[in-house]
Amino acid sequence: MDMVRGHVLCCGGTGCTSSGCEAIIKEMEAQLAANGLEKEIKVIKPGCFGLCALGPVMIVYPEGCFYSRVKVEDVKEIVEEHLLKGRIVKRLLYQETVHGDDIKSLNEVDFYKKQKRVALRNCGVINPENIDEYIAFDGYKALGKCLTEMTREEVIEEIKKSGLRGRGGGGFPTGLKWQFAYNSKSDKKYVCCNADEGDPGAFMDRSILEGDPHSVIEAMAIAAYAIGADQGFVYIRAEYPIAVKRLQIAINQAKEYGLLGKNIFGTDFNFDLEIRLGAGAFVCGEETALMTSIEGKRGEPRPRPPFPAVKGLWEQPTLLNNVETYANIAQIINNGAEWFASMGTEKSKGTKVFALGGKINNTGLVEIPMGTTLREIIEDIGGGIPGGKKFKAAQTGGPSGGCIPAHLMDTPIDYDSLIAIGSMMGSGGLIVMDEDNCMVDIAKFFLEFTVDASCGKCTPCRVGTKRLLELLTKIVDGKGTMADIDRMAQLCYSIKESALCGLGQTAPNPVLSTLRYFRDEYEAHVRDKVCPAGVCKALSRYIIDPDKCKGCSLCSRQCPVGAISGEIRSPFVIDQDKCIKCGACKEACKFGAIYKK
Amino acid sequence: MKSLAELQEIRNRTLNNITLRKEGADEIRVVVGMATCGIAAGARPVMSAFVEEIAKRNLSNVTVAQTGCIGVCRLEPIVEIMMPGEEKVTYVKMTPEKAKRVVAEHIVNKQIVSEYTIGAAN
Q1: What are the angstrom distances between the C-alpha of A272 and each of A128, A213, A221, A312, A507?
Q2: Closest Cβ–Cβ partner in A2, A62, A132 for B65
């Protein structure tokens, strides 16, 4: 056996793959071979580290150096300087880790310091395509413990005691869900995993499946043992090719090791797992629609009750949990319910993963204990808003959630306090908005998404959201009336009350919460015909300041619709009727004479 | 998978390969000075000898790391061995042959090879 003295971890998550990590890994292998280091240094492709904004990232052990924004040209230097000669390439280090001559460990960087990684514990640490590495980090130990030392009732009791709640957004107590599925009498039961992550901006489930697929497999086996099932399905969207591939590899390895299949750990417990690919319908993230889709039918929801725990897949009792929920299970069994319950708030235990996006410096994935405030997430972990702009609101819960305005930034993040302020946890997308975002436009964006995603089965959702969007469009176009605002609010409540499934019931949330906290912006659009943030095209105007204009005619030559006219060396004018507000003139002007109102 | 013992066996086997990424308390560190002076004096074959010897003996709790110049360039190649709970030992003017002896006597049998240390050179 050759001794490996160093490990180079090149992030292979979707984020880094799109910023070119494949080419870097290839170059790394070539450079290692060229320097005769291929036997000493091992290249590993783990899942996401969470700091996607800095990708492609690379960590070199045993030093633990964190290189960010690595380019193919840099690889040679890293190999020759760091790996061959032991001189760390400081200019490529993540600057937060460099303090004068000192280099801090990654865990001491602000971005990671306040995080508590439970669901993401292995992401960025192990090679997801190697079951042995997962086992080395205590993998499948929890399954072994459940099967050989615990009764089914004890497993359910442990999950109940931990206080774990569904991480997909609803926040239903997981242990209770298991109990219901256990209570249902049937000779055939199913366990399902909801990996149909569709919220715009959310990618934590993808990251877990890419970085630590075995944690989901192990937890599903534990769940199956607890409720008495022998067949499982992971419903994952086909738009996640890397996650699908790694999960399939993981399932195959688990089968080879006998961790899936018959008589697991020498007991009479059998469990088999299959992948089902979603075809891209957002509604299939709703539990009843998801199960209908697994059955091979058109993915549409059905009324509840009966709940899936009583009648789910093929009319049999079915347990359905989200990816992130499953990722916590093995940890709870290994470390005990008390350990898990010691994190978080009174009613929301443990940690939650958030996908930070929008106007924030550290775009990426963070896992924080429940009860952390929004301010800590945005200012300390997220590194604040780029360009020193002012924070306006954060959107959580995607198209089902709402906006949290600046004055509520100190609200602790947990299920109940988010609902109380008109938003929701959702699956964990957290989109940050600054003063340049128009809240009416944001509401319209999410509503457009829901209108598009509505399956059309029930009228309130199919027709209601469409009418709601029409009203919003009217306001954004500057044609709305004050009565429209009230009519919108009323329509929102009707949809919430009468829609069939979660998609429709939560669709008006973005409108309701922006109406609640940013009514002045709606009124400005309607009454003053002005978009305060200058986003809504119909309400904004480009104007030439006659004092600054030198009459060079550059703008009029750039204008694609010929809306600008004037005499050379005297101020030009924009014809507002012809202007399409593309902004080309403003960019072209060398004197800063054109501004947007 | 037929038993917990089987799982434990895979765990132990793999732990050896990934200890680099775990923060262990019982870890022995071999640090080779690999600045320009060290490399010029032949630190590279010394480090390779450590790596080979440690692999041959299957010592999983030892990591070999590199460092820069500690200032006594005339004594390069310099190798420092750090063991938990002990003073670090600095070996100077190392060669691949000396490296093998250090692994056998110091790392495995905990007997410092005092004739190679910096104290002996002065």
Answers
A1: 20, 15, 8, 18, 36
A2: A62
Domain A131-340, second-level architecture: 3-Layer(aba) Sandwich (3.40)
Q: A6-106: which CATH architecture? A: 3-Layer(aba) Sandwich (3.40)
A312/A58 Cα distance (integer angstroms)? 44
- Among left, alpha and beta (phi > 0; psi -120 to 50; other), residue A558 is alpha
Chain B residue numbers with beta carbons less than 8 Å from the beta carbon of A84 are 34, 44
Beta bridge partners of A358: A432
- Output the six-digit token pair for A397: 């819960």
- What digits encode the pLDDT tens for the residues A26-78? 999 999 998 888 888 888 888 887 788 788 888 888 777 888 888 999 999 99
Q: Tell which CATH classification among 3.80.30.20, 3.40.50.300, 3.30.430.20, 3.10.20.600 matches the domain A351-434.
A: 3.10.20.600
pTM of the predicted protein model: 0.82
Local structure of residue A2 (DSSP, 8 states):
P
Choose from B1, B8, B17 for mutation: most chain A CBs within 10 A: B1
User: Where do the domains of chain A lie?
Assistant: 6-106, 131-340, 351-434, 439-526, 541-596
H/E element holding A439?
Answer: helix A439-453
For residue A60, the cross-strand partners are A8, A65
CATH T-level fold of A541-596: Alpha-Beta Plaits (3.30.70)
Strands A102-103 and B89-91: unpaired
Which amino acid is present at A378?
A: I
pLDDT digits (tens, 9 = 90+) for A384-426: 899 889 999 999 988 888 999 999 999 999 999 998 988 888 8
pLDDT at A1 (0 to 100)? 42
pLDDT of residue A201: 82
**How far apart (Å, rounded) are the C-alpha atoms in residues B37 and A168?**
57
Class of domain B25-121: alpha beta
Q: Are A252 and A272 in contact (CB under 8 A)?
A: no
pLDDT of residue A53: 79
Contact B1 A265 (CB under 8 A): yes
Distance from CA of A140 to the nearest CA of B (A): 8
CA A177, distance to chain mean position in Å, is 24
CB-count exposure of residue A314 (10 Å: 0-12, 13-18, 19+): exposed
Q: What is the mean pLDDT of the segment spanning A112-127?
A: 85
At the top level of CATH, the class of A439-526 is mainly alpha
Burial class (CB in 10 A: 0-12, 13-18, 19+), B58: exposed
